[in-house]
Amino acid sequence: MLSWVRNLLNNSTHISKICQIHAQIVIHGLPLDSHLLETLIHLGNLDYASSVFKISSPTDYSWNVMIKGYTLNASPHNSVFMYNEMLRNDVRASNFTYPFLLKACSARFAIKEGEQVHAHVVKFGFQLDLYVNNTLIDMYSKCSCVEYAHRVLDEMRDRDEVSWNSIISGYVSCGEVENARKLFEEMTIRRNVFCWTTLINGYGKEGRLVRMFELFLQMLVSADEVGPNSATMVCLLTACSNLCELKLGRWFALFIHVNTIPLNAILNTALIDMYSKCGQVEKARRLFDGMSGKNLVSWNAMLTGYVQRGLLEDAIQLFCLMRYKLVKPNEITMVNVLSACAGLVEEGRLQFSNLPLKYGLSPKVEHYACMVDLLGRAGYLNEAIELVKNMVILPDSIIWGALLSACRIHGDIDLADKIGELLLSSPDPNFGVCILLSNIYASVGRWKDVARIRRLVKEKDTKKPSGCSWIEVDGVVHTFLVEDTTHMGSTQIYETHQFLINHLKLKECVLELRHKEP
DNA sequence: TTAGGGTTAG
């Protein structure tokens, strides 16, 4: 009977059937709790699994299975909690559990817990095999402790592509793409498509399009004999869309077509995003309409495209179509929808209330920012203030900025005063918001207040992150920071700049004189 | 049972 019920469990995919089998297990006192747990975890029903675990007398194996289950079902907090409970109950983790635990730690960016698990692996004498070591590198890398990851790599006798790529990926996510490149060059084994893609992505994320493209070309002719796959193309397209680089984006789109790289949902979405961010929103829509297997991210990308191009009616219509197709929106969808409600206060109020009531979503600071902006611009300043007062989360600088902008638009200096007091009393006032306040005072001639705020900003050492601009000339991207003199043509650039300023001033004088002519 | 990829706010 035992093996018959076990087989029955293994072949069950419906909860109702599993409930029946569970009843049989209880009635006959069969020792199948661990199997039941495994089946439930496989089906992703962690609540049921947790109930079974609590009411049964858990075996060591059951503890381990639960840890695995929580990690696999994106519940790393419970996974780590379970591990601590397990230790309190004097139960040891099995070798197979450690990678899951490390994965749970990296998902929570919990370096302390990760280090503790690492220490336990050593203390309890488990073998640090290739698989566990790779998971350790991954954990340290994801927790931004890439130097620890490097230490693990140094101590490994055998390394495979996963070991190398985990650490290269760690350097990339820490913004150290040159260190990633160094390791990539040092690799003693054949570099697979993961390694190439990770490094290409590193350059792409830094906006270094030329280096990214060079690496891509190098990949095509490399002795590794690795071709790009969908993930590689996604990285390349995303870099193009972030830099509005239509020409290169189109080239990659053609490459995908000519080389018949499989167009999965992610790659299609990256294409849609690239075209819409590069101003080709109609092309994006054609792709979107012809795409099979659309998911929520695809809908969101298309919505974002419309909103960012100011095509708000199209965005609202697309959202209606999305609801008609019974696609459930998420937080990102609703940020887009609220942004698309610009000028439509009543619709905005409705959509904001729909967040919890209709879609079961808790409004986040981004949604409040949209609403404050919408209400503030339309002159509903008191309502905007009330909304901020009733927020269950702390308002951020974007919200204060939106409120102050509304004060400026509607000339409500009293309210700006009140907000200003609140802002300047905070220990770390946002630079941009302080300048906004100072500009409001300047617009009504309150120069003493302007000076006061500038002084406060200086005293509190509030720093503005450096603004950056760039231009591509003959395939090379030139980047500029404020008062930057590092560019090779810096002297010539500043001379031309001064020439343009003088030229414009002269034009302005001529125009003024013409106006004054009788 | 480990590594890379898409969508948010002034």
Topology:
Blueprint: H1 2-10, H2 15-28, H3 33-42, H4 46-55, H5 60-72, H6 76-88, H7 97-107, H8 111-123, H9 130-142, H10 146-155, H11 161-173, H12 177-186, H13 193-205, H14 209-221, H15 230-242, H16 246-258, H17 265-277, H18 281-290, H19 296-308, H20 312-324, H21 331-340, H22 345-357, H23 365-377, H24 381-389, H25 397-410, H26 413-424, H27 431-443, H28 447-459, E1 468-473, E2 476-481, H29 490-516
Antiparallel strand pairs: 1-2
Helix pairs in contact: 3-4, 3-5, 4-5, 5-6, 5-7, 6-7, 7-8, 7-9, 9-10, 9-11, 10-11, 11-12, 11-13, 12-13, 13-14, 13-15, 15-16, 15-17, 17-18, 17-19, 18-19, 19-20, 19-21, 20-21, 21-22, 21-23, 22-23, 23-24, 23-25, 24-25, 25-26, 25-27, 26-27, 27-28
The structure holds one DNA strand of 10 nucleotides.
Could you provide a short overview of the structure?
The protein has 518 residues and is mainly alpha-helical. It has helices spanning 2-10, 15-28, 33-42, 46-55, 60-72, 76-88, 97-107, 111-123, 130-142, 146-155, 161-173, 177-186, 193-205, 209-221, 230-242, 246-258, 265-277, 281-290, 296-308, 312-324, 331-340, 345-357, 365-377, 381-389, 397-410, 413-424, 431-443, 447-459, 490-516; strands at residues 468-473, 476-481. A two-stranded antiparallel ribbon has the order 1-2.
